[in-house]
Amino acid sequence: MLVGYMRVSSESDRQTTDFQRDALLAAGVDERHLFEDRASGARDDRPGLTKALEFVRAGDCLVVWKLDRLGRSLSHLLNIVTGLKEKGVAFRSLTEQMDTTTPHGELLFHLFGALAQYERALIQERVKAGISAAQRRGRQSGRPRALDSEKMESVLAALESGTSKASVCRTFGIPRSTLIDSLARVGWTGPK
Questions:
Q1: Which of 9, 12, 167, 177 is catalytic?
Q2: CA distance 41 to 145
Q3: DSSP run (H or E) holding 3
Q4: Is 106 in contact with 147 (CB distance < 8 Å)?
Q5: pLDDT tens profile 68-124
Q6: pLDDT tens digits along 27-39
Q7: Would you call 9 a catalytic residue per the annotation?
Q8: What is the C-alpha to C-alpha distance for residues 45 and 26, in angstroms, rounded to an integer?
Q9: Which residue intervals of the chain are DSSP H helices?
Q10: CB neighbours (10 Å) of residue 191?
Q11: Stated pTM of the model
């Protein structure tokens, strides 16, 4: 069975799925097996897509007019198509002429998978380079410290004078775990 999915990015009346509907019907999708969303492709909660993915069964084929109607990114698209494949459901995109039931379509799917993996590797590489560049300039990555150096000096002075950790936490408004972590970071072992 051919099951169609179509999407437009907004709920305005100016954008319609008419063109997609016509293309899917011409490709052999039954009108009763069409699912539709009027939402951005970046949204995770697309009820039409959810219903379509729940509706398809092994041996069916999910058909879209164009790849960007289905996935918000290459990796998202691959996750959906991989999930379909695991269920025994084929996938077909009319515009890109991708059909996972053919050797050509299977090749395209694997090429997309390789491109998505490459894209993830590039992103990781850029993140690492950015962190290294920031560290060379003296910037610290990650969350800012809960206790800056001035506050930490006050905490240490209070503890050295015999104030309990519980009292220090109340006075400075910090959780006990933050105090313990901060003390470990500076190597404090107790009052001298």
A1: 9
A2: 37
A3: strand 2-8
A4: no
A5: 888 777 778 888 888 898 999 999 999 888 888 888 888 887 887 788 788 888 888
A6: 999 999 999 988 7
A7: yes
A8: 28
A9: 18-26, 47-55, 74-86, 103-136, 149-160, 165-172, 176-186
A10: 10
A11: 0.60
Tokens representing 1 are 């069975």
**CATH architecture group of domain 2-114:** 3-Layer(aba) Sandwich (3.40)
Is 192 buried (19+), middle (13-18) or exposed (0-12) by CB count in 10 A?
exposed
Query: In whole angstroms, what is the distance from residue 190 CA to residue 38 CA?
Result: 62
CA distances from residue 125 to 117, 118, 121, 129 in whole angstroms, order as listed: 12, 10, 6, 6
SS3 (DSSP) at 72: coil
Distances (CA, A) of 134 to 6, 131, 144: 44, 5, 14
